[in-house]
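User: What would this chain look like folded?
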Amino acid sequence: MGIDLFLNVLLLLGGFGALYFGAEWLVRGAARIAAAMGTSPVVIGLTLVSLGTSAPELVVGVTASLTGESGLLVGNVLGSNLANIGLILGATALIRPLGVADRVISRDVPIMIVVTILVFPLVLDGEVGRADGLILIALLVVYVAFTFWTADEEIDDLREEVGSLAEEEGEGEGRRTAHNLLLVAVGAAGLAFGGRAIVNSAIFLAGALGASTAVVGLTVVAIGTSLPELVTSLVAAIRRETDIAVGNVVGSNIFNLAGVLGASALVGSFPVGESLMAAQMPAVLILSFLTWPIVASARTVRRWEGLLLLIGYFVLVTWLARI
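Assistant: Here's the prediction, encoded as structure tokens.
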């Protein structure tokens, strides 16, 4: 037991290191690709970065579907969305107030809310089947296509200074593009490995402490798989890439619901417990609705609003863990 505990602590620390460097490389490569394409960092944050940082949720979701751990699967997705909004946006805004692009306010946050609402009728029968999975994946494809299509209409308004992240390196165009794509790929792989390592070690540690599976899924696993988003958003905020920070959270929530639940359902149908429908899903919807007025006020997530999100997150999680 002592050796297992020591090895899992090492795995936890290694996961944190993989998350940090993965986030650094992913944001750097994404910002450079955005500059080269003439595309705003917010678009990259809503698509490439959010998809990459959601890899741990996807890995856990598919694995849980294959092993029949439906409670862990759905609890991880909903818990991650709660953590993305309350913990990540809240903590990041405390470090640096986050500017919010107009498109995030008028389009992406409403889309996140709509996708959250659309999940409800799909789970009313107590199961997410393959047909439901196809619907969710179709929603994700439409969202990603819509994001890039509408970006072309506002390219002058959306283009922003990406600072040192997008600086030229004096390479040929082909080598520079390949280097940036490699940064994104290695960064995403590091995030996926780090998230997986943290989840595995956290589950072991929680089990050693006698925590229930339900509480582990809602807290330890959800927070563990959300750490890539947290680190990526913090790095982006520190580097003043606040569009990436906010867009990453919104895009990740959409991907978690549409992509992770959808892909997991395609692997195999899974049941949804009554407590998940009656408590966790409404909690995610409440926090999603709260996000809209916060990002719309002054087009900035201010420090006191970040504190409000953090308090809301911990209150909801504490309530859900006791149900």
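The chain has one domain: 2-321. If you want, I can go into more detail on any region.
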